[in-house]
Design goal:
Helices cover 35% and strands 26% of the residues. The protein is α+β, with helices and mostly antiparallel strands. 39% of the residues are buried. This is proline--tRNA ligase.
Length: 506
């Protein structure tokens, strides 16, 4: 994948150009296509620090739609918003060694203030457990303080050195992270799935991206946690899975390390049960990869910053541009008053054709064209971004027709993405079938003995298979097919205990 990481100045500058039209084809050169799509679509701008990106208004508006939905549900669930500092001391970070060991290679450290060395280095948060939990132990004393549920919107830094990619793998990113404490494991278990369902809704109902809900293997779970659940997406063009969001049950280990105890109604003191959960701006990249085409971005209407662009069209110098522009302005006003996000592009220095390409690259779901005949017939021509279909709509039915079309685009994007994903799922039973499916860029569903040693062995054995990297478990889906008695693990030949999804991943 083309990544925007440290490379030749010529290559770097090439990515920063914003010419009209896409140069790369999605199927032929996916990495270059993706880099071009997010720049030409004005989602990001490359920045002077490798692996860091400027998020442009289009990206931030998509993020804010997801944020508004999530904030609303957090309020319903009585989860309180907080903000915790960016920095964490070395002593706090090292307090939970198993946890930080998983992040150690990615932690960025502040070691100087001006020209002076700090007495002790300060870390920039890769995640916030070690920042928050000392205060949980202060705030939680009694069963009356439980459940304690909080979340924050913030940035984190993970100093990724392997192929930074906008949204997907960057050194700084935005995310939502939630943390909670309960008196019982049953309450914690319930919340894990409750939040995971919200993440499914974000991807499927807003971003129109199909995901699989499941449980991570012991090898892939959150460092220091009891178990991890996730929603997993899949990119057919690359044959790679992508962890879209996670919801972890941390058990009582962190509570024991940080002294987060409560006194029950009988006077006994116990460790709390804890969860953590989060999703990030990676979601925007998954959306782009899933729906984008050779013309650029394709944005689902529910998250599109602009749902309708209105463009005046004149076919001759004699056209009454005043009446055409008036009809365009009236159309934008009518749609806007109905809550539809619409704008007029009346720039005189660009042709209608140039504008069509420009707004297609930005992924606007609907384009409305208004010319002399449309004015005379009191209608507009509407063009869909997802499939290019055109329809003439009377002004009297404008709002209803646009609403139906936007809903149809949302549904079509999800349906099409689901069909593409499902066409890549391959059920296998043997090692030879596994290797063939892996090299065919498939999302592999395989019977597995659920042993960590076997998973490690699969990683080692597939590392040399082609140039795309090793395979691993993506998740064990909650929706389990029947596992007939006597089914053997594809990798070890031992009795299989579960069906799991395997593949390469981002």
């Amino acid at each position: 994948m083309s990544s925007g990481n440290d490379g030749s100045e010529k290559k770097k500058n090439k990515k920063k150009e914003t010419k009209l039209g896409m140069t790369y084809k999605k199927d032929a050169s996916f990495g270059d296509w993706y880099s071009e799509a997010v720049v030409h679509g004005e989602m990001i701008e490359y920045y002077g620090v490798s692996g860091c990106y400027i998020l442009m208004p289009s990206a931030m508006r998509v993020w804010n739609v997801l944020k508004d939905f999530f904030d609303s549900d957090m309020k319903k669930l009585k989860v309180n918003p907080y903000y915790f500092p960016l920095f964490v001391t070395e002593s706090a970070l090292q307090k939970e060694k198993d946890h930080i060991e998983g992040f150690a290679p990615e932690v960025a450290w502040v070691t100087k203030s001006g020209q002076s060395d700090l007495e002790s280095p300060i870390a920039i948060r890769p995640t916030s457990e070690t920042i928050m939990y000392p205060y949980f132990s202060k705030w939680i004393r009694s069963y009356r303080d439980l459940p304690f549920r909080c979340y924050q919107w913030c940035n984190v830094v993970r100093w990724e050195f392997s192929d930074p990619t906008p949204f997907i793998r960057s050194r700084e990113f935005l995310w939502q992270e939630g943390h909670s404490a309960f008196a019982t494991k049953e309450e914690a278990d319930e919340e894990v799935l409750q939040v995971l369902e919200l993440y499914r809704r974000i991807y499927e109902e807003f971003l129109a991206v199909p995901v699989i809900k499941g449980r991570k293997s012991e090898m892939e779970k959150f460092a220091g946690g009891l178990y991890t659940t996730s929603v997993e997406a899949f990119i057919p063009n690359t044959g790679r899975g992508i962890q879209a969001a996670t919801s972890h049950c941390l058990g009582q280990k962190f509570a024991d390390m940080f002294g987060i105890k409560f006194e029950d109604d009988k006077g006994s003191r116990s460790n709390v049960w804890q969860n953590s959960w989060g999703y990030s701006t990676r979601s925007i990249g998954v959306m782009v990869m899933t729906h984008g085409d050779d013309k650029g971005l394709v944005l689902p209407p529910r998250v599109a910053p602009l749902q309708v662009i209105v463009i005046p069209v004149s076919y001759s110098k004699d056209a009454d541009m005043a009446s055409i522009k008036g009809a365009c302005e009236s159309t934008v006003c009518t749609l806007s008053q109905s809550g539809i996000r619409a704008e007029l592009d009346d720039r005189a220095n660009h042709s209608p054709g140039w504008k069509y390409s420009h707004w297609e690259m930005k992924g606007v779901p609907l384009r409305i064209e208004i010319g002399p005949k449309d004015v005379a017939n009191k209608q507009v021509r509407i063009v869909r971004r997802d499939n290019g279909a055109k329809v003439d709509v009377p002004l009297t039915n404008l709002v209803d027709e646009v609403t139906v079309l936007l809903d149809g685009i949302q549904e079509n994007l999800f349906r099409t993405a689901t069909e593409r994903r499902d066409a890549c799922i391959q059920v296998i039973h043997t090692w030879d079938e596994f290797i063939a499916a892996l090299n065919n860029k498939r999302l592999i569903l395989a019977p597995w003995c659920d042993e960590e040693k076997v998973e490690k062995d699969v990683k080692v054995r597939t590392r040399g298979e082609g140039e795309l990297g090793a395979a691993k478990t993506l998740c064990t889906p909650f929706d389990q097919p029947e596992l007939p008695q006597g089914t053997m693990c594809f990798a070890s030949g031992k009795p299989a205990k579960t069906w799991s999804f395997w593949g390469r991943s981002y």
